[in-house]
Amino acid sequence: MARNTALYFRLVEGKNLPAKDVSGTSDPYCIVKVDNEVVARTATVWKDLNPFWGEEFTLHLPLGFHTLSFYVMDEDTIGHDDVIGKISLTKEYIASQPRGIDSWINLSHVNPDEEVQGEIYLELHIMQDQHKCNLHCHVLEARDLAPRDISGTSDPFVRIFCNNQTLETSVIKRTRFPRWNEVLEFDLRGIEELDPADQVISIEVWDWDMVGKNDFLGRVCFPLEPLHRNPAVTGWFRLLPFGNTDEENGGKLGSLRVKVSLSEERILPSVYYQNLIQLLVESVQSPDQGDCSLLALLEDMCSAESRQEVAVKLVKIFLGQGMAVAFLDRLNMREVNRTGDPNTLFRSNSLASKSMEQYMKIVGMPYLHEVLRPIITRIFEEKKYVELDPCKIDLNRSRRISFKGSVSEQQIRESSVESLRGYLSDIIDAILGSVEQCPPGMRLCFKQLHKRVEERFPGAASQDVKYAAISGFLFLRFFAPAILTPKLFHLREHHADPRTARTLLLLAKVVQSIGNLGQQLGHGKEQWMSPLHPFIQQSVGRLRDFLDKLIDMESDVECGQTSRTLFHPSVTIKEGFLHKRKADAVNLVTRFTFKKRYFCLTGQSLSYSKSPDWQVRSSIPVHRICAVERVDDNAFQQPNMMQIITQDGDTQGGHIMYIQCKNVNDLNQWLSALRKVSLCNQNLLSTYHPGAYRNSHWTCCLQSERTVRGCSRTHLAVTLGDWSDPLDPDAEAQVLYRHLLLVKDMLRNKYLDGADDVATCKGETRGFTGKGLEGTITYSAARRLLSVIEDLQRAHQVFERREREETSNHSNCI
Prior knowledge:
Elements: E1 2-15, E2 28-34, E3 37-41, E4 52-60, E5 67-74, E6 82-90, H1 91-95, E7 101-106, E8 119-128, E9 133-143, E10 156-162, E11 165-168, E12 179-187, E13 200-207, E14 215-223, H2 225-229, E15 233-238, E16 255-267, H3 274-285, H4 293-301, H5 307-320, H6 324-337, H7 351-382, H8 409-432, H9 440-456, H10 465-484, H11 498-515, H12 533-550, H13 559-564, E17 572-581, H14 590-593, E18 594-602, E19 605-609, E20 618-621, E21 625-631, H15 633-636, E22 641-646, E23 655-660, H16 664-677, E24 687-688, E25 693-694, E26 697-698, E27 712-713, E28 719-720, H17 729-742, H18 744-751, H19 757-762, H20 779-813
Antiparallel strand pairs: 1-4, 1-16, 2-3, 2-5, 4-28, 5-6, 7-16, 8-9, 8-15, 9-12, 10-11, 10-13, 13-14, 17-18, 17-23, 18-19, 19-20, 21-22, 22-23, 24-27, 25-26
């Protein structure tokens, strides 16, 4: 059994931020930390006290977390960036909001005493006889302490208070991973005379400073009474702050609008999900399920808010079974058969529409990148001023168009039309010439959709319906959204600036019109788009030819075989330029120790060379990767560094490759991608060294032996969620079960209560109608689904009871 925590957060916008620059504005950006580790950084919004970011992330944290923090910073080109304020949300608070958090929250001051992190390893036990009662506190080590010195390290020591006595350990210089191995002893005689609140042992960690006051690094407290009942307390303990002393600032530092939600799943062993998966498989395989009863039942019970997540999980479950295309065909057939007006086909956010949309994102993302990335990159680089709407034309920006003096609105419109036509020609040519690049699964899915629509709406009058059904998905739900917001489709690292964003919006509008087969031309309020209408009409004719070629493939291709090629090992997962540290660069100055190399990650290997086209390449097999982790900034005095630890056979210590990424987001994306492909490797490490081995010792824990066990825990499965997440049938089935559990009572009351027992025994179908559900619902399908839900519910209760017993036993020991 495993646990999986998915933390979703979206930084929407800020307002009323204080001015940090002499110009009376700020250049704000946000840093997101989970338990004091930076997991994301937004783009900087220049000269704005009310910035909009709109950036969202999903973080998978198998071991859970304690605190999510948002820091608002002001970027400075000279010197250090200024801290404007922060928001901290505890896991308990986030979990107490079942519908998530979506609100404005005031920023608070950043108190250094609150910025603590790390853990300390302790052994506590009381030695008592007729003559004495002593407490032995064995302080062994600490890890991941906060850096308090300019070097990026600290000089930590431990100060312990107990029974009006104070003792301290020695100071360990320049490390965040100190090892003391010291025993401090306290006389407990007379402690019972103290107030109960003072009958504790308080263990504080401090950073020693030669000049000025020492810096607080965190503390942990234990009541003494339980120690009298138990022989010893041993383990790693999280360091905590003194307590929140922030006062309400009344919004003087401004506020952030954030969206946060938390999903915690207890993943049971695979055997417990087999009945649910088998029931889903049978709903697609069985020829007598033409009404698609179980899938219709799922759609009817899912709320509009949960439908997208349910669609994602269903698509991934059927991908894992090699039946995604068959599953989508069932959904699409039902959607087509219950649609009376062809103009409304797939226009709602039905389970079929959402499932098709998610399938394209999962299967077709490499295809989309190959088609759109070159032209999107060029649009971002050229930053042309483009505008067709007379109400939005700004003549002051015309200087970028002409240096011969002012220009008229008409000249700006003509220049804009010319620029847009140039971009659109490249976009449409790339899409319409991409038949062979389109994944076979998508093509087969579109072919079956074409067939279902043609059967439902025959005749010349409905000739375009079969084309519109496909182009509606491919253009309106796939290509156009990617053009409008390239960052959300991983085409760009940052959001577009306002000028580029306007160009992308106009281009997306045209692509949507082409996807609609030009049916809206001449209608609506945006008649200023008319100069592009001839291009749209010309492209629609080419689009029909493209769609005919797209679905022209062998019909006997197995859906399962097509789907199983999705995550082929040779598919490129991530690529780009990084700086690799030379293995023999021990004594070289920094600028000579790193070499720029082009890295390419697939499911089989991580390779690198001087350029993308360079013939000589070095390669690391993915199965040899043991850990992928960050590197402390002070190890090489360089930020945004990671290390890839590989091992051959039983070789002790392994080989470490150090790589520098261009920014923290790039670092997190590479960490995530590498961890995903190596998640199931056999020789994964549980610990690592966040520093480097230099001058005969590790810079992190100062140990001299190169092969000594790592001083910090690895983050094996901490990943960013995106389209490239590996298939995990158990995790997908668990999330689906969670949604079904919420509607269990509705399932029973709506489709089972009052049913005829005789008809049930004979397995006959009973007609039940419900809101949003057409056709008949088989009693047996609802009954089997309810049985599966209840079986899983009982299994969870058993595991929960075991966990409570284990936790209780552990607490008794403490």
